[in-house]
Specification:
Number of domains: 3
Structural class: alpha/beta
Radius of gyration: 23 Å
Strand content: 5-15%
Mean pLDDT: 97
CATH topology of the largest domain: Rossmann fold
Low-confidence stretches: none
Oligomer: single chain
Distance between the termini: 64 Å
CATH superfamily of the largest domain: NAD(P)-binding Rossmann-like Domain
Largest sheet: 8 strands, mixed
Number of strands: 15
Bound molecules: nicotinamide-adenine-dinucleotide, uridine-5'-diphosphate-glucuronic acid
């Protein structure tokens, strides 16, 4: 079986490479010639741990092209994994890229092709894609399917190769049989395959992301309560998470969720539901609370600076929205840094992988070689993303490099006990401040 993957971004490329690891021949097509040229040279255009090795190992089964028609015409199964960003103005999912890809697929596909939507799409889209293809290619028989992806950036390969489940929305036996075959290597590992309707598969994806976004937002609010009451959110998260009905994952408090998916997907499902007259109040509130949290971060830093950051230097460690990715889409850093600059602060920043992607978005920032370089002359140091390289920093060295002594750890990277007696003021999330 030959697979074509349309769109070679974070999801398309990882999925394509993982399918080749399963043993399939995969052609990855993208309309971005620079991306394809890099891939043809064997370079991975994104930072995703392990992806370069996996791609090199499967080079014989993988090819890359800008010739979408050629890729589609040679395949039995075509996955569409193009972007579905927030539409300007109303926050609904912008389906332009999916629709355009569907039209291109229709022209070039062979009869009997299974067209699978892997992009995150709102309910009704896969059926709509079917209609677009049927209109453009009335003489060809084909199937459509919805196969949402649940991988996370930074652990994408592990998530793809060992998922908790695979969700497959189909409405004919051929599509089901083909997708079962595609995921057969996982089936052998007893991965549950949920076969359901097109609409259920589409809603499942948004429900999963919205639930996780709400879970993070919940613990963030509990963290706020802890800060006022002298509680410790780490202990509370652990204690509630040990209840199997709650579960310990996604209970890490922080600056507020960001990234290319939770913000846009919560906005999209909320906007759609509002338009349909069935508003999702919990999700609307999650969005508002999260936006307020990220929007309020700069004020928190200003308060720690004694009420003003004008003329002060702030070191920011971690610019990507999470560790192990170079993705800065809707990262908290993109809100907090401009706000601090507007209030008169100079920013010294470091990120192990995302500096290049962030640079055009964050003018005026001084990019530093490492955490200690960023700390040089800083009044306050903020840990915004929990990269491993920030987990065992030499506090004495940091303190010496800084001109001030405040560390704001928005990811609770350090244990409170480890921060006692360091001569620093250590502020974290949902825990007591250590001032010594
Ligand atoms: P991305 O922006 O990284 O990549 C999308 C790619 O599609 C780009 O390279 C673009 O050039 C290409 N493209 C657009 N239109 C095309 C066309 N007509 N033909 C060929 N190529 C085309 O996006 P992403 O982060 O990989 O996300 C893709 C989809 O997967 C989205 O719907 C997203 O919500 C979903 N998703 C993303 C993640 C994630 O971790 N990033 C996880 C699960 C699901
Ligand atoms: C998320 C989902 O976890 C994936 O299942 C989904 O496939 C993907 O969105 C998507 O639809 O694109 P991702 O955005 O890559 O994956 O990363 P997450 O690990 O979920 O983190 C998202 C944001 O939440 C980050 O800003 C992260 O720092 C934050 N987060 C996460 C917390 O603040 N606390 C947590 O406990 C977990």
């Amino acid at each position: 079986m030959r697979i074509a993957m349309i769109g070679t971004g974070y999801v398309g490329l990882v999925s394509g490479v993982c399918f080749s690891e399963f043993g399939f021949d995969v052609v990855c097509a993208d309309k971005d010639p620079a991306k394809i040229a890099a891939l043809e040279r064997g370079e991975v255009p994104i930072f995703e741990p392990g992806l370069d090795d996996l791609m090199a190992r499967n080079a014989q089964r993988l090819s890359f092209t800008t010739d979408i028609a050629g890729a589609v015409g040679s395949a039995d199964v075509v996955f569409i994994a193009v972007g579905t960003p927030s539409r300007r103005g109303d926050g609904e999912a912008d389906l332009t890229y999916v629709h355009a890809a569907a039209r291109e697929v229709a022209q070039a596909m062979r009869p009997g092709t299974v067209v699978v939507i892997k992009s995150t799409v709102v309910v009704g889209t896969t059926r709509q894609v079917g209609a677009i293809i049927a209109e453009a290619a009335p003489d060809k028989d084909f199937s459509v399917a919805a196969n949402p992806e649940f991988l996370r950036e930074g652990s994408a390969i592990e998530d793809f190769m060992r998922p908790d489940r695979v969700v497959v929305g189909v409405e004919d036996a051929n599509a089901e049989a083909v997708l079962r075959q595609v995921y057969r290597p996982l089936y052998l590992r007893e991965t549950p395959i949920v076969v359901t309707s097109l609409e259920n598969a589409e809603i499942t994806k948004y429900a999963a992301n919205a639930f996780l976004a709400a879970k993070i937002t919940f613990i963030n609010e509990i963290a706020d309560l802890c800060e006022i009451t002298g509680g410790d959110v780490q202990d509370i998260a652990r204690a509630i998470g040990l209840d199997n009905r709650i579960g310990g994952k996604f209970l890490h408090p922080g600056p507020g969720y960001g990234g290319s998916c939770f913000p846009k997907d919560t906005r999209a499902i909320a906007a759609l539901a509002r338009r349909l007259g069935a508003p999702l109040q919990l999700i609307e509130t999650t969005i508002a609370v999260n936006e307020a949290r990220i929007g309020g971060l700069a004020d928190r830093i200003v308060a720690e600076a004694g009420g003003t950051v004008a003329g002060k230097t702030i070191a920011v460690l971690g610019i990507a929205f999470k560790p192990n990715t170079d993705d800065v889409r809707e990262a908290a850093s993109l809100t907090v840094i401009p706000a601090l600059q507007a209030a008169g602060a100079a920013i010294r920043a470091h990120d192990p992988e995302a500096a290049e992607a962030a640079e055009p978005e964050l003018p005026g920032v001084t990019w530093c070689a490492d955490a200690y370089d960023a700390a040089q002359g800083a009044d306050i140091l903020v840990i915004l993303t929990e990269w491993n390289t920030y987990r065992a920093m030499d506090m004495e060295r940091l303190g010496e490099a800084m001109s001030g002594r405040v560390i704001i750890d928005m990811r609770n990277v350090y244990r409170l006990d480890d921060m006692r007696g360091k001569g620093l003021r250590y502020v974290s999330v949902g825990r007591s401040t250590i001032d010594n």
